[in-house]
Design a protein that fits this description.
homodimer, Dna Ligase, domain 1, 2 domains, 29% helix, DNA-binding, 4 helices, Arc Repressor Mutant, subunit A, 3-stranded mixed β-sheet, alpha+beta
Chain lengths: 126, 126
DNA sequence: ATCTCTGCAAAGGCTTTGCACATAG
DNA sequence: CTATGTGCAAAGCCTTTGCAGAGAT
């Protein structure tokens, strides 16, 4: 049976508080504010468990280790700023993706990652 | 100055022959048919060099190590079969991606990864 | 002959695992 | 009390690097 522990609480709180994709290291750092002796292995174990329960999902940027994010009801895509390396969540979804695949393929999911410059990096003065 | 070696030839041939994203391991295995003593480090070095020359580019599937593919002139997207793990190249490109980002963001690139079942896996009999 | 490239093995990241102790139920 | 969860350290991937020798020019 699954137990409720201080560590898991802290980890889940971090995902809840930051509403964006976080790396295991970021999670560790933040969760340690509440649970100082927390170990990285526990973070990985918690992430894996939450992911397989479908409560967390991975967001990957080409060439980087995955970051994880709370699944909310909605489906969205991301924008990766090439300058500050932050990932932003976008509203809305592309349509007409069906026309990209030849006959016979069955689309069950899709991911879209936009990249470029975020407003802050685009306009550094002010 | 850059030298022409049997190893690099073999590696480039592999990318040319398979017209799809390949992992370093796959490249090693195939290139060794022609250059048996080829080492994995050499494959990585060649990939890195070709990538920074802009002749090869990385394709990443969430949670997997990157695969690399020859850059041809055109831009395309991919379909990842959840059953056989193969990656297929797609023709065409989504449009209207601009509407996904709020004002102030500058889109410089995008990646789309569709997933599901390829024709072969969808219809295993025959 | 020179200077780059290669193979090998060692070293580096990130992630997972083994194990004894801690602790929720 | 008992079985799951945790921290630590070790082990496992994948990728990069150091180095001496091989090979292209």
């Amino acid at each position: 049976m699954e137990r409720r522990t201080a560590q898991r609480e802290s980890i889940q709180q971090v995902f809840a508080r930051f509403n964006r994709p976080l790396s295991p290291q970021e999670v560790l750092k933040e969760a340690r504010r509440r649970t100082p002796r927390l170990g990285l292995a526990t973070v990985y174990r918690a992430i894996r468990a939450l992911e397989s329960e479908g409560r967390l999902h991975a967001v990957t940027i080409s060439g980087q280790s995955p970051r994880y994010e709370w699944c909310d009801a909605s489906h969205h895509h991301y924008f990766h700023c090439a300058a500050c390396d932050q990932v932003f969540k976008l509203e809305g979804c592309a349509d007409n993706l069906d026309r990209l695949v030849p006959k016979g393929f069955k689309i069950e999911g899709h991911e879209i990652m936009l990249s470029g410059k975020c407003p802050a990096c685009r306009n550094p003065r002010r």
